[in-house]
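Aggregate trends can hide what the representation actually does to any particular protein. The sequence in question and its structure tokens are set out directly beneath this paragraph.
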Amino acid sequence: MSSAQIFGESVQGASHKRSGKECQDSNRGFSLGQASILSVADGHGSNSCPYSKTGSVIAVSAFCKIMRDYCKHYANDMETLLTFLNREGDTKVAQEIDQEWKRRVRKVHKDNKREQYVNDKGEKDYAAIYALYGSTLLGLLIAPSFLFAFQLGDGDMACISDAGAEPIIVTEKILGTETHSLSKLDAWKKAITRTKRTVSDTPEPPHAFMLTTDGFANSYASQEEYTKSAGEYFALIQKHGAEAVSSNLRQWLSETSEMGCGDDITALIAYFDGKEQPE
């Protein structure tokens, strides 16, 4: 697989601009040798989650850290990594991501000398602390021969080619504003993972992978309109190049929020054109 051109933006939603609330979304993406790691997160932003921006920053960092460690450990045997992720993705791996997020939240909370809650037994009430940092998490590892996708909460991941946009994970939509959250005890049990070989199942380049928080899809009237928009981004990359789309992405996402649901929006894209990128 050729190297990816990776770019993305997290923009403050139109309704958040009006209320003065900071963007709660975060994203992180990078290449690691022949692999690429992408992650986006959506902090809940409610009054009961005052530190959810921090929670989303920690979420993308935790996913990327865990995936980087796996890639380095299995650098000479990616087939074994594929087998491991396929077998343990929604159990051991999900637990590691969940535990890493919670460990970092506890550290940030303590380092900032924030209130240490206690329960009825006089013990530290970590559940109350985690709730202050609530966030969703989407993550994608793109290896030369396979994908590993992780999802906890809402948002979308798609593979886009000339044939259109295909979801990588299909989840049941939760009605209303509720979503699964890293802040819950045993949050890993709500994680959905998928491993997929790319040698035969993924289109030949050019193609792209796109991760978006729910503010993106919710700004369109239907799944069909969301799919059409994802395809239009792909067409723009092919016509004008990834750099041109990257430089305009923040403005376009802000306009999408303004004309759509008003929520924060993140889009993170990895584009493969089949050409080797310079080191």
